[in-house]
Design a protein that fits this description.
Elements: E1 16-31, E2 37-39, E3 48-50, E4 54-68, E5 77-80, H1 100-106, E6 111-115, H2 128-131, H3 141-146, H4 155-158, H5 171-178, H6 189-203, E7 206-211, H7 214-224, E8 229-235, E9 254-258, H8 268-284, E10 289-293, H9 312-325
Parallel strand pairs: 5-6, 5-7, 7-8, 8-9, 9-10
Antiparallel strand pairs: 1-4, 2-3, 4-6
Helix pairs in contact: 6-7
Protein name: Esterase
Length: about 325
């Protein structure tokens, strides 16, 4: 058990009607002009001739779903992760508590957690003409300082947390978090949005919950297919939708949630400001957007990774109550 972790009590058993997984989306890409190679796949084996020229399927995504009994959510709840992460974001917290996947499943939601294009079980197709550039990987100190866990530059080396921070930042828990961090491209947004829309077309009308980088995908998927988004929950969205298409969101109720320590951060006042201005544009077009700053609700100490913080269930209840108030839970 991670140092400082609360010993988990045995939870009530869950009853599932069904669960499973699938891949969805992607496009075919033709590669040509590459040399044929001989590859030894296994030490001591026989070399195989590999011709890299031909048609590839790339840009698919992975999804895992759980349908509880009784079912109380009126639509599937899709959970979309942020940059450099996978669907693990929503599963078990770094210090071993049940994550939001479990929280909402226990309340009767059909939960779908996905790994976006090039992440986790979606796979990674290294075709430069399609992915562009190089994948980025984070050092261990980067999220500690950038995700509003540590107190400024150099805080990881100092072990200096922001006062009252709720992220489980003991070394064992934090390293569990870093084990979740995966390489990411900054050039695959179009592929990712295509696959998220394909996921919505597969699941049908759904509640979409997004985090960080996925903010843009949530906004834009709802703009492209408002008929398939019953509600949009944005947990610290890092980007906005298309300003020219805000009217497409007028029938999609939206909740935006922001954590603590934003005013003193170098980047987040601008990120939050962009999000709030976009929300105002949606309201001006006839839409409904609720913006919640957790400290104003008396919920303090939240990092950028709100769903992993020690008070994550308190924030999940806020989201659950908002969904129920919109008639999406019975």
């Amino acid at each position: 058990m991670a140092a400082g972790a609360v010993k988990a009590q045995a939870p009530e058993p869950l009853t599932l009607e069904r669960f499973g997984s699938f891949h969805v989306g992607g496009r075919e890409v033709v590669v040509s002009g590459q040399p044929v190679r001989e590859v030894l796949f296994t030490p001591g084996g026989v070399p195989a001739r590999v011709d890299p020229n031909g048609t590839y399927l790339m840009g698919s995504m992975y999804a895992q779903y759980f349908v509880p009994r009784p079912l109380r959510g009126s639509a599937p709840l899709l959970m979309w992760h942020g940059g450099g992460l996978t669907g693990v974001t929503w599963e078990t917290t770094p210090d071993g508590r049940e994550g939001w996947q479990h929280y909402f499943l226990r309340r009767g939601w059909h939960v779908v957690v996905s790994d976006a294009v090039e992440r986790g079980r979606a796979g990674w197709s290294q075709i430069p003409e399609q992915t562009g550039g190089q994948a980025l990987t984070l050092t261990v100190d980067n999220p500690f300082e950038r995700f509003r866990i540590g107190n400024g530059q150099g805080s990881y080396q100092r072990g200096d947390l922001l006062p009252g921070n709720q992220f489980p930042a003991d070394r064992e828990s934090y390293m569990n978090f870093m084990r979740q961090v995966v390489p990411r491209f900054t050039t695959t947004d179009a592929l990712t949005l295509e696959s998220y829309i394909a996921l919505l077309e597969r699941t049908g009308p759904s509640v979409v919950m997004v985090h960080s980088q996925a903010g843009q995908f949530g906004w834009r998927a709802a703009q492209a297919r408002p008929d398939l988004v019953r509600a949009l929950v944005l947990i610290e969205p890092a980007a906005v939708g298309d300003p020219a298409r805000v009217e497409a969101l007028r029938n999609v109720p939206v909740l935006m949630v922001y954590g603590d320590y934003i005013a003193q951060d170098a980047r987040w006042p601008t990120i939050r400001g962009n999000g709030v201005r976009f929300a105002e544009a949606v309201r001006a077009a006839g839409g409904s957007v609720d913006v919640v700053d957790l400290p104003e609700r008396g919920i303090r100490g939240n990092s950028h990774m709100i769903m992993m913080d020690r008070n994550s269930d308190e924030v999940a209840k806020l989201v659950q109550d908002w969904l129920a108030a919109r008639g999406l839970w019975r």
